[in-house]
TrEMBL record:
This is Uncharacterized protein. Residues 24-277 form the EAL domain. It comes from Rhodoferax lithotrophicus. It comes from the Bacteria.
Amino acid sequence: RIKAEEESGYLFYSPEMNQRAKEKWQLEGELRHALVAQQLVLHYQPKVSLRTGEIVGAEALIRWRHPTNGMVSPAKFIPVAEETGLILDIGSWVLDEACRQMRAWMDAGLAMPIIAVNLSARQFDRLLPNRLRTVLERYQLPPECLQLEITESLLVRGAEGVISIMNELVAMGLALSMDDFGTGYSSLSYLKKFPISTLKIDRAFVIGVPTDENDCAIAQAIITLAKQLRQEIVAEGVETREQMAFLRQLGCDQLQGFLFSPPVAVSDFESMVLSGLRLTLEP
Ligand code: C2E
Ligand code: MG
Ligand code: MG
Ligand code: MG
């Protein structure tokens, strides 16, 4: 095979690059198969109110139940899916699956909180509003049950097109949430241009709270900004009670993180909601 490539004169990669390209190509094939073989699953991570301690939402996070490698993290395959464009099919599957699950909860008479789904920037095109309309209609769901998490890279691309798609989504009744806030390159002033209802402070800043002065200052600035823009603020990756207490005292609205729960399988999430599990806010 290599010989044939050499003879064809198309071998312009170094051997290592060639190896990486092959691995990527192989992963893409396996991932494409995973999609049809139903090896992809959604886990749910609760978001809790820092006012009441109750579960007020959850984020759907994809996992790959690989037949031989066990549960594969999205960090391992989402980047490849984005590079190859396969994220469009995966993204559609995620939306469909989250909506199918919400329909099942409703049919079972379970009152579930709002569910957030992560969107890749590549999914964010003119057809997105219609794709969302179709899936909501398929499962007969009100748009208010779904939130879309997007990242700052979308704002940087910042074309008018992006704003008008966002406006269309909001007009449909969907809520937009800015994920990983503070890690990208967007200017803070961009924020007021976009119809975003929630900011999620990235774990990178939560880690240093309350010991690292810089992280505390950044967390405080983000919370103040969000409040002024009348946006809800969620802290992600909260692992300790000290972090919780600090963020709560600054006026952060919600917390998501291992302190309360990691992302869990559907049945575990259902038990949590049904049992009325709450976060203890008092120190
Ligand atoms: P994200 O959307 O920022 O999700 C938060 C990540 O932080 C999740 O990792 C979650 O398990 C992890 N996390 C939550 N709380 C804690 C904590 O207290 N400590 C620590 N150390 N980690 C915490 P996960 O599930 O591995 O997902 C990684 C990223 O993959 C997500 O980051 C998101 O960008 C992407 N992703 C996941 N599912 C999807 C999807 O369906 N579509 C798209 N486009 N991207 C997805
Ligand atoms: Mg997210
Ligand atoms: Mg995030
Ligand atoms: Mg993050």
